[in-house]
Amino acid sequence: MTKTRPVLEKFFVKNDPVPIAIHFHSGKYTQPNILTYHREGEVHFFRRGSGGYFIEGRNYAFKRYSVIIIRPGEIHNFVPVPGIQVERISLQYLPDFLGRDQGILAFTPEYPRSFRLEDRQATRLEMLIRQIDEELVHHFPNKPSMLAWKLKEYLCLVGRYAVANKNQPAVANPAAEQLIDYIEENFARKINLSQLVAKFGYSADYLSMLCKKLTGLSVKQYILSRRILEAKRHLERQPMLTVAAIAEKVGYDNLALFNRAFRIHAGHAPGEYRRAVSGK
């Protein structure tokens, strides 16, 4: 049985002078991911490979030169095809860094969630993101101002190409989507796989297959990850709420079990996570 590894997250806090991160990923993915959620926006550019991105209950396919947009606060998971080589460049940023242009550069629901680039568009976008990465790793004069300008240019280009190119719609899977919608409505209650079998009339194996195809996770993994994400939201937004109260709100009646699950999935104890995101 594959063990879930702790995810040590990068936190941007208010006093970060440059809340931007770029990650270059390359490899064949075989391990299951877990759901994630954070305050940063993300733009993923795929240079190679195929698969999907589960975002807010739906799965969006990607292939070479695809771009995937994830808005701040959206629940998502990377769902690659096992054994397929994938190369992607991920940019993560805090919208506050955009200053008064934050509203203009926000990817509102009118923008397509995913789209493919033409060759010349892909070349220009990759060149710009590598310029941003170079600024990040060096200590050039006026670094924050230059990075803010470059980030705005990058997001403007992404927005322009999103409008110009055909949208890649979510991959339709009605049975799996109904299952996820039901879990979303009830994960904070004491639901389990047996109850879902009774509710939907499918076998446990079939339900987990549906769930994994859409989200990259089995039913049990999805429920567990979803509870931890909801706990994160409470830790971030309700500073006066105790950890025990949060555990109960997300479906745990055993505080020790909640603390262990949170540490495994988030890489931090709940109290440490709260301090990290608050910057205190």
Rg computed from alpha carbons, rounded to a whole number of angstroms: 19 Å
Structural class: alpha+beta
Largest sheet: 5 strands, antiparallel
Share of helix, binned: 40-55%
Count, helices: 9
In terms of per-residue confidence, which ranges show pLDDT below 50 for 5 or more consecutive residues? Answer: 1-8
Spatial gap, N to C terminus: 38 Å
Binned strand content: 15-25%
SSE run: EEEEEEEEHHEHHHHHHH
Question: How many DSSP-defined strands?
Answer: 9
Describe this structure in words.
The chain is of the alpha+beta class and 280 residues long. The chain has helices at 119-137, 143-164, 174-186, 193-200, 204-215, 219-237, 243-249, 255-266, 270-278; strands spanning 20-28, 41-48, 51-55, 58-62, 66-70, 76-80, 85-93, 114-116, 170-171. It has a five-stranded antiparallel beta sheet, covered by helices on one side. Strand 3 (51-55) and strand 4 (58-62) form a beta hairpin. Mean pLDDT is 88; it is low at 1-8.
Give the helix/strand layout.
Elements: E1 20-28, E2 41-48, E3 51-55, E4 58-62, E5 66-70, E6 76-80, E7 85-93, E8 114-116, H1 119-137, H2 143-164, E9 170-171, H3 174-186, H4 193-200, H5 204-215, H6 219-237, H7 243-249, H8 255-266, H9 270-278
Antiparallel strand pairs: 1-7, 2-5, 2-7, 3-4, 3-6, 4-9, 5-8
Helix pairs in contact: 1-2, 3-5, 6-8, 6-9
